[in-house]
Amino acid sequence: MSALYGHDEAIAALVAAERSGRIHHAWLLAGPKGVGKARFADLAARYLLGRAADPSLAGFALPDEHRIAKLLAAGSHPDFARLERAWRDKTGDFAKNIAIDQVRGLQRLFATTPTYSDRRVVIVDAADDLEAPAANALLKNLEEPPAGTVFLLVAHAPARLLPTIRSRCRLLRFRPLEQGAMAAALADAMPDADAAERAAVAEAGEGAPGRALRFAGLDIAKLDAAMEAIAREGDPSNAKRAALAQSLALKAAQPRYEALLERLPSLIARIARGRQGQPLADALALWEKARTLAGSAVRLSLDPQATVFELAGLLAALAPR
Prior knowledge:
It contains 15 helices and seven strands. It folds into three domains: 8-173, P-loop containing nucleotide triphosphate hydrolases (Rossmann fold); 179-217; 218-321. The chain has helices at 8-20, 37-53, 67-73, 100-104, 106-110, 132-143, 163-167, 179-189, 195-205, 209-214, 220-233, 239-247, 254-272, 277-297, 304-316, and strands at 26-30, 80-83, 87-88, 93-94, 120-125, 149-155, 170-173.
C-alpha cells in the first residue's frame, strides 16, 4: 500500500492512543475530499489490527507481507468491516447513500468473537453518505460500542453529521497538504509523469492529492489556459466559447468535461476574491449560476456542448468592458 503524506500529527495521535492501551472507540477523520482521509483510515485499520495481533510490531506502516496486511488486502479479514455506498450493477453507478441494512449487517461481525486478537475495526467511508436511518443505527453502536471495536468515520463535511455522532468521536482534522508533501505524494503516485505535468495537476489539486490525480493525463494546464483567456479577454464573437464547447462535446472528452465542471466555478470564485463593490457582487452572481449549472450537469445528463458554451459565457461576462 502506498505511503501517506502530510498527516504526521494524525498518525502520532492514533499511535499514542493505541500504545497507551486506552484507545478511543470512535474517530472522526474530518477534512476536504482528496487529502488522504480514506488512505489514513486504511493504514490505521492495518496498524490497529496488526498491533492487536502482534504487539511487537513497531511503526505505523504495517508491512505488506505481514499476514494481517495480506488478509485485509484480500478482503478476508474476519475482524474488519467497511461501510460504503454499494455498487449497483443495473445502473452502472454507486447507490446515493449508505443504507440502514448495511449498518445492521455489522451485527454479524459483533455477534462473534474476534479471530486474530481482541480487536475489530470498522471503517465508514464516508459518514456523510449515511442515510438518516443508517446514521441513527450507527449511533446506537457508538453509544454502546461492542468490546474491542474501533470505528473510523471518514467525513468530508462533518457539520452535516448528527451532533450526537460527532460528540462520541475523537476528532482528527486533515488539512490540504503543504507544497513539499503534495509534490512527494504525486511523485509517488505518478512516477512516469514529467515535472510539468505533476506541477499542473498539483496546482489543480489545491493540496488534495486525490483530487489532483483525477486531473492526471487531461492536459489540465491547457484547459485552464482556455478558461482564463475567456475570463480575461471576453469573447464578443463567441468563437472561443464555441471552440471550447466543441472540444469537450465528444464522449471521449468526458473526463476533461467533468474537470471543467469542477474547475470553472472555482476560477470565477478566485477572480471574485480580487474585486470589491458592484464588480464583486456581479462576480458572485456569476459564480452562483456557474456552481448551480456545473453541479447539475452530469446528474441531469445535460448536453455537454451546450453546457460548456453557457458556462464559458459566464466566464466571458467577467472580462473588463
